[in-house]
Design brief:
The chain is α+β, with helices and mostly antiparallel strands and 250 residues long. The chain has one domain: Creatine Amidinohydrolase. The strands form 5 sheets. Strands 1, 2, 4 and 5 form a 4-stranded antiparallel β-sheet that branches. Keywords: Aminopeptidase, Hydrolase, Metal-binding, Protease.
């Protein structure tokens, strides 16, 4: 069932989003060659605890960490590890923050040191894809309008859009209806209504969109070793247009 959030629920989700943004900005300062994603996971645990919040995905369906950290050809749900990040890597940090029952979900792909031109283009197109989708998150539009905008832009730039993982409704649990595919046809799917809260989180690949699962049954990676990038916001559907609870630029 698709639910619409009350003003009180949305205020709590906005507060969680503000804290998530603070955490992402601190992580961004720490990402450099030589650091490990396990260190970033430990930092996130401490940061959230110090601010009265918890990492909502830790323990969700048995997931053991505070963050997902997906490097290079890993699409999503990468486990933090002890190996150091190397110059030229890209790493996606994805997290869900619970602050007083309000949830916020955001992923961001970061450069480690200096990334090659092809990697820079992947990141730029991936981020633009997110905002192309957000532009369509208007009351009266349909979910297919979001995915169509993302797919047509990303594929027009020569990249592919992952099909196996989607955005979703959020609050009071991590994954709620509706699913938000990042591909599809316009004017298809459920209609967006004021008060809905969803995540838009396109995963964009250099090569094929197909994924394969690691032996940990969590981490998905590309089948052709191409790199993957992802940017994600939590979005409230309002009469005045999409409102981002996880906006890093406001």
């Amino acid at each position: 069932m698709i639910t619409r959030k009350s003003k009180r629920e949305i205020e709590k989700m906005k507060a969680a989003g503000d804290l998530l943004v603070q955490c992402h900005k601190e992580i961004a300062k720490r990402i450099k060659p030589g650091i490990t994603t396990m260190e970033l996971d430990s930092f996130t645990e401490r940061f959230l605890a110090d601010h009265g919040a918890t990492p909502e995905q830790k323990g969700y369906s048995g997931y053991p960490y505070a963050i997902c950290s997906s490097i290079n050809d890993e699409i999503c749900h990468g486990f933090p590890r002890e190996e150091t990040l190397q110059d030229g890597d890209i790493v996606t940090i994805d997290m869900v923050v619970n602050l007083d029952g309000g949830l916020a979900d955001s992923a961001w792909t970061y450069r480690v040191g200096t990334v090659d031109d092809a990697g820079e283009r992947l990141l730029n197109v991936s981020k633009t894809s997110l905002y192309k989708g957000i532009e369509q998150a208007q009351p009266g539009n349909r979910i297919g309008d979001i995915g169509h905008a993302i797919q047509t832009y990303a594929e027009g730039e020569g990249f592919s859009v992952v099909r196996d993982f989607t955005g979703h409704g959020i609050g009071p649990t991590i994954h709620e209806e509706p699913h938000i595919p990042h591909f599809g046809l316009p004017n298809k799917g459920p209609r967006l209504k004021e008060g809905m809260v969803v995540t838009i989180e396109p995963m964009i690949n250099e090569g094929t969109w197909q994924s394969q699962m690691d032996s940990n049954n969590w981490t998905a990676r590309t089948t052709d070793n191409g790199r993957s990038a992802q940017y994600e916001h939590t979005v409230v559907i309002t009469k005045d247009g999409p409102m981002l609870t996880t906006d890093q630029d406001k």
